[in-house]
Design goal:
Blueprint lengths: L7 H15 L6 H8 L13 H24 L4 H18 L1 H5 L11 H15 L5 H23 L9 H19 L4 H4 L2 E2 L5 E2 L5 E2 L6
Antiparallel strand pairs: 1-2, 2-3
Helix pairs in contact: 1-2, 1-3, 3-4, 3-6, 4-7, 6-7, 7-8
Keywords: DNA-binding, Transcription, Transcription regulation
Protein name: TetR/AcrR family transcriptional regulator
InterPro entries: Homeodomain-like_sf, HTH_TetR, MT1864/Rv1816-like_C, Tet_transcr_reg_TetR-rel_C_sf
């Protein structure tokens, strides 16, 4: 990469490539500088240190995941939206297992704009069931735990038996939806709510609404 084209975004992109190819442990400023064809001090114009680069990488991955799930649930409602959300999450992790593993889990996704957006999408999907307050927080946590936990186990080789992991994931989704059925009396399909492009809900009157989801 020519020196003139180096930017903060370019540095993050190079970091993603290194992580995809070699894992998060291989990410160093010297590795990025070598990939860019510049001396390591040149990177300090764009990132202060390795910790900031890891933060930017994490934000990039959360943005990609939010984009993927938002596109998947757009215009869907109820069970269909939940299925689309969970399938999109798993698909992203299977495509980018190394960069997904590089996401910072502490202090959690709510600490970044992209993480807040991802939580808002999760909450919008679940709020269609009439969930509010603490019930919405608990359900959002369950949704994230199902998507994240299964995907991490899958890409790390945690499922060694012969049965197809895709079938297991569909069963997990069914179990999650049945749990929602037991907890909630009103179904999104009955209300007619659908997820909009902004990650909110649209009711029969066409009003979009969504609050930031924090879990």
């Amino acid at each position: 990469m020519p020196r003139a084209s180096l930017s903060a975004e370019a540095v993050v992109e190079l970091a993603c490539c290194i992580v995809d190819e070699q894992g998060a442990e291989a990410l160093t400023l010297s590795a990025v500088a070598g990939r860019a064809g510049v001396a390591t001090p040149s990177l300090y114009k764009h990132v202060r240190n390795l910790a900031e680069l890891r933060d930017r990488l994490s934000e990039r991955v959360l943005t990609e995941l939010a984009d993927r799930t938002a596109e998947a649930v757009l215009g869907r409602s109820g069970d269909e939206a939940v299925r689309a959300f969970l399938r999109a999450w798993r698909a992203y992790v299977l495509e980018h297992p190394q960069r997904y593993a590089a996401i910072r889990q502490d202090p959690g996704p709510q600490a970044t704009p992209a993480g807040q957006r991802l939580l808002s999408i999760s909450a919008a999907v679940l709020r269609a069931y009439g969930l509010e307050g603490s019930a919405l927080i608990h359900a959002t946590r369950c949704l994230r735990a199902a998507a994240h936990g299964f995907a991490v186990l899958e890409v790390s080789g945690g499922f060694a038996m012969d049965e197809q992991t895709g079938d297991s994931y569909e069963l997990l989704i069914d179990m999650l939806l049945k749990g929602l059925d037991r907890r909630v009396g009103t179904r999104a399909a009955q209300r007619g709510d659908v997820v909009t492009a902004s990650g909110g809900l649209r009711d029969d009157g066409g009003c979009a609404h969504c609050r930031n989801g924090r879990s």
